[in-house]
Specification:
Helix content is 22%, strand content 19%. The protein is of the alpha/beta class and 288 residues long. It has a single domain, classed as TIM Barrel (Alpha-Beta Barrel). A 7-stranded mixed beta sheet has the order 7-4-3-2-1-10-11. Strands 5-6 form a two-stranded antiparallel sheet.
Length: 288
């Protein structure tokens, strides 16, 4: 069975995101577009994760808490966590690693903290769109220790990517998955970068506006899940495909998705919905 995902979305907490990127708007747009699972990945902060998690659960949308951490090398790293507790621990550590620079709303935009009713309950004063003091190695080690996974963001771009800033993918990080941008021509990029043939690609939107959230275009296939649903066994499933027709590029990821995140379980599954009963699972060992 195939599931549509978007694992890189920003809320109004990110100063570069539109103010319409509220918890309910994000979730409702994802549902309207037919997505089965999303991840919220604001810049260097998890302050809106709980609100989006509640909205997603209420709508039957699988939610993976995350963050787009900027390393001291100015590399953007999509950090996906198994549950809110782990994500908020990462939030605390990353916040302490941010420089004490105040946000300039007139330059960078507002950084709104919201509740599950889209009400503004605070505003982050420290600038979030800047490099932390954490190295890329430290981010990988930290997220892995919290039971999560890291995917280098938008590697096809000329800035804030691991390839643009380092010129390569460090072998010692044992990275297997790289994110490409929404409009990246996957085949042309593959052809232009044969040195990346050993890496698997996943497409995300990096949405800062509601309309940018992906349609049902980045697909993952969970092998044998329909049969397990029939006999009531739906945990421990494995991913075998990234985009429609691209099962080869996500092969072998199955063992990474074994532990069920109860906080992200659908409250009352609609048995007629393709994602009914689907859970957000720990992304352990994806990049190991």
């Amino acid at each position: 069975m195939k599931y549509a995902v978007d694992l890189h979305i920003h809320s109004a907490l990110s100063p570069c995101a539109h103010e319409d990127m509220t918890p309910n708007n994000i979730v409702n747009m994802a549902v309207m577009k037919g997505l089965d699972a999303i991840a919220l990945t604001d810049h260097n902060s998890g302050a809106n994760l709980e609100a989006v998690s509640i909205c997603a659960r209420n709508q039957g949308l699988v939610f993976i808490p995350g963050m787009e951490v900027e390393s001291c090398e100015e590399i953007h790293l999509i950090s996906l966590l198994p549950d809110l507790k782990s994500a908020l621990k990462l939030h605390e550590i990353v916040y302490e690693a941010l420089p004490a620079i105040q946000n300039r709303k007139d330059i960078f935009g507002s950084q709104y903290i919201m509740d599950e009713n889209d009400q503004i309950i605070g505003e982050e004063k420290r600038l979030l769109v800047t490099a932390t003091s954490l190295t890329a190695d430290e981010v990988f080690s930290l997220v892995t220790s919290l039971g999560g996974a890291v995917i280098p963001a938008h590697v096809d771009r000329s800035s804030y990517s691991m390839i643009s800033n380092l010129g390569l993918i460090p072998e010692e990080l044992k990275i297997k998955y790289l994110e490409i941008s929404k409009n990246c021509d996957r085949y042309a990029y593959r052809a232009a970068h044969p040195e990346l043939d050993g890496y698997k690609l996943i497409r995300s939107s990096d949405a800062h506006y509601l309309g940018d959230i992906l349609e049902r275009e980045s697909m993952i296939e969970i092998e044998g899940r329909a049969a397990r649903e029939a006999d009531g066994s739906t945990d421990g499933f494995g991913l075998i495909g990234e985009e429609s027709g691209q099962a080869d590029d996500m092969a072998g990821i199955g063992e990474a998705l074994r532990h069920v995140d109860e906080a992200s379980r659908i409250r009352e599954p609609d048995k007629d919905k393709p994602s009914a009963g689907l859970t957000a699972c720990e992304l352990i060992n994806i990049l190991v």
